[in-house]
Amino acid sequence: MSRRLLVLGYHNIEPTYAFHGTTPEAGRRGFERQVRFLRRWTNVVPLRSALADLRAGRPLPPRAVALTFDDGYLDNVTVAAPVLHAAGLPASFFLVPGFLSDTAPVWWEQLGWAFAHATVPEVRWDGIRHDTSTPVARRVAADAVADALKLLDSQDRIAAVAELRGRLAPDGPELGRQFMDWDEAGELLRLGHEIESHTCAHPILSRETPTAQSHELTNSRRELADHFQRPVDVLAYPNGRAQDYSAETVELAGEAGYAFAVTTRTALAGARSAPLEVPRVLVDAETDLREVLRGAARVAKRVVAGRFRG
């Protein structure tokens, strides 16, 4: 039995303008290989119950893994969920009501699209020149600018994306629909998966006021629970790095009624993990999960050895 849990965090299966990959087919094949590997070599457990077991001091199966997906990309329900269901593996999907309703802008995909179809050879932003003369250069520039925009609050970030789009003068096919809607999200439940909260509109919470944070945390939980008629008490912090949420955010998450919250801070979850700051390891459909598990095993051994020496 185990006292540790490896929580894996996905976004998409097929490549997008913001989350790059090889090809859609490579993403699908890669995910199917990962699922076969997970089914053979690990014990995939539901996230919510596994975290409750850790908190209560109950042991988990050996090589326990929980699968999570952020944002609600359409391929989560058309590709990932059916593949997992066929293999008998559960997953938790952290959804954004504003994306399900198509009322909140997905700024990182809009930015990636604008850079991918830029018609200017360079763009200056925040005093820095970014080369946009080749596809590779445009991708590098988009990633760099996206990182800079994460330092802004929601309103300034949306305004910046609009301004950048004007400067880049993109010319290409429209972005198209990338995210599931409410009805499609219901299919996740029918396939035996869990739906949890990823805020109302995916702001980076530490950049927002306490009032705005409380609204995002409380209303997203209520909207999802009311619509799907089931409890929603696990949160994924948008972006999820240490700088993307604060001690105040954690306190507000507890006040909003969440029992657990996951981050993107890389580590194994254990009995001593703060319930509202659970670590995760981010992966994509083309990640070699064998290496991820080997790394997790090395970490676990060091922890055990350190406790033994102590």
- Poorly predicted segments: 304-310
The CATH topology name of the largest domain reads TIM Barrel
What sequence of helices (H) and strands (E) makes up the elements? Answer: EHEHEHEHHEEHHHEHEHEEEH
Distance between the ends = 22 Å
Q: Please identify, by name, the CATH architecture of the largest domain.
A: Alpha-Beta Barrel
Number of strands: 11
* Total number of distinct structural domains: 2
Major sheet description: 7 strands, mixed
Beta-strand proportion: 5-15%
CATH homologous superfamily identity of the largest domain: Glycoside hydrolase/deacetylase
Mean pLDDT: 95
CATH class category name of the largest domain: Alpha Beta
Shape: globular
Number of helices: 11
Proportion of residues in helical segments: 40-55%
Any idea what the radius of gyration is?
20 Å
The helix/strand class is alpha/beta
GO biological process, one term: carbohydrate metabolic process
InterPro entries: Glyco_hydro/deAcase_b/a-brl, NODB_dom, Polysacch_Deacetylase
Protein name: Polysaccharide deacetylase
Pfam families: Polysacc_deac_1
What descriptors fit this protein?
310 residues, alpha/beta, TIM Barrel, two-stranded antiparallel ribbon, 46% helix, disordered C terminus
Question: Any overview of this molecule?
Answer:
The protein is of the alpha/beta class and 310 residues long. It has 11 helices and 11 strands. Strands 1, 2, 3, 4, 7, 10 and 11 form a 7-stranded mixed sheet that branches. Keywords: Signal. Residues 63-310 form the NodB homology domain. This is Polysaccharide deacetylase.
